[in-house]
From TrEMBL:
One of its GO terms (biological process) is transmembrane transport. Belongs to the binding-protein-dependent transport system permease family. PROSITE patterns: ABC_TM1 (PS50928). It is found in: Cell inner membrane; Cell membrane. This is Spermidine/putrescine transport system permease protein. One of its GO terms (cellular component) is plasma membrane. The keyword Manganese does not apply. It comes from Rhizobium tibeticum. It holds the Pfam family BPD_transp_1. Gene3D superfamilies: MetI-like (1.10.3720.10). The chain crosses the membrane at residues 12-36, 69-95, 107-132, 138-161, 182-208, 214-233, 245-265.
Amino acid sequence: MIRDQGPTSKIWRFAIWALAILFVLNLLAVIAAVMVNSFATRWLGTWLPAGWTTRWYFSAWKEFQLSSVVLVTFEIVFTVVIISGILGITTAYALARRDFPGKRLVILLFLLPLLIPPLTYGIPLATVLYQLGLGGTFWGVVLINVVPSLPFVVLVMIPFIEQIDPRIEAAARVFGAGTTSLFLRILLPLLLPGMLAALLLVLVRTIAMFELTFLIAGPTTQTLVVSLYYAVFASGVRAGQSIDAMAVVYMVTTLFWLVLALQFVNPTQIVARAKQQSTH
């Protein structure tokens, strides 16, 4: 029996939808303002700019040395992805296939960097890295970003690994498959969607990670998001359009990889697949 919704319930639902729509419209308005201003010759007190130009992008590329910044960003990001992928997939396989005393505690320790604010562990970790001489270096930035990326890969990959029937692996070993052959011929094709999703999301996360990178990055190891921060708050007079052009480059770069990642898996399917597997 379905009860009719009272006026209070309708008001609450209307208020929730109104707040959600207001939030989305406000977010879209901010993004639109940044994008429009990045192409504006001059925009003061009018609905639309006085004219349009692309010169701010060329100016930002030269002024903020975006070619080197983008190159360093992707060198750091892909190194983090490779290290997190190798260690994370191996760890996820061990946690998905093995039962041992204290397993839940180990999983909890792996997930802590995802559960607590980055600055909580970022500041003491950055202090240790500076004491080891890694402050401001390429590997310092990589290591501090691996800390939250590794458990993220583990969290994403465990449900995918649990979907694979262990009897398939046992049968392959009976027929003489070694560890390398088992991984390349059996596990890799089955895990490929999950691996791509996890690694692409780590890539997006690392590009957008400001707090940890800011704590350890030096003048030559700044990623795009840290360089954008310095462009906004560093001393000196800079054209607002150039900064907005740099912000658009950052948004487009992040959005491209995020959309690509979502083509492989919907985040809600990670839990749904695990539940479906457990019912069979």
